[in-house]
Amino acid sequence: MLCFSILGGIMISKLSIDPLQEHITSLQNLSKETLHELNLPISTIRTNSNMIKKNMQNEKDIKRVTRIEKACDMLQDRYDELDYMIKKQSLNDMQEEFYLDELLKQRVEFLSSIYPHVEFSLELEKSIIINDKKGLSKVIDNLIDNGVKYAPNSNKCDIKLENYSLSIQDYGCGMDEVELLQIFDRYYQSNENTNGFGIGLSMVKRFCDKNAIKLSFKSTPNIGTTVLLKFKEN
Question: What DSSP line would sit under 120-189, residue for residue?
Fold first, then answer.
């Protein structure tokens, strides 16, 4: 009797799980198809805006097209994130070899268009690492974005890469020891007036733990915060 009960339970579970699995597979396929369809309009906007800009003389028109190009870059970034999430669902290993210094230059160039008032100081040593490149891009964006948001009265951000150690230093409000103990708590924000949902650093921590990156913070109230990431040497 017990065997029949167990067998019945297994069959009921399978009947419940199979439709859910089919639904998840359908959503994944829809995401892949949507991603593929988005690639064409992004490429079309980028190509045509470049062609139009070459023949322009009016400074105001050039600025308008430049804004279109920046918006297209932001759309491309969201496209890449969606592509990353889809691949992450189907692949266990997202590791690849790349130059960390080049990735940092790319991310700073992108963020400079969003925060033109910020002066980014870069000291980058050539460094090849093996890691999740797209995921690390999101981590870098998040950390720099935090540094800018929590330093509204400062226009400086220093980024240094040396001996496989990355430091991102801002000159903002800083944190005391109690706040430092809470920064990885989901939904915690040291400043309730700052935009955001407070989940960024908890995600950063999980990524670093999973990808063997040592993460630490140094901070002093009213002076600023330095984020330190230590990578494995190849």
Answer: EEEEE---EEEEEHHHHHHHHHHHHHHHHHT-TT--EEEEEEETTEEEEEE-SS---HHHHHHTTSTT--
Its CATH architecture, for the domain 95-230, is: 2-Layer Sandwich (3.30)
User: In this structure, what are the phi and psi dihedrals at residue 161, rounded to the nearest 5 degrees?
Assistant: -125, 115
Q: Which CATH number fits domain 8-90: 1.20.120, 1.10.10, 1.10.287, 1.10.3470?
A: 1.10.287
Name the burial class of residue 73, with classes exposed (0-12), middle (13-18) and buried (19+) by CB atoms within 10 angstroms of its CB.
middle
pLDDT tens profile 30-50: 666 666 667 667 777 877 888
SS3 for 98? strand
Tokens representing 223 are 């002076």
pTM: 0.62
Cα–Cα nearest to 207, from 112, 106, 149, 139: 139
- Whether the pLDDT of residue 98 is over 90: the answer is yes
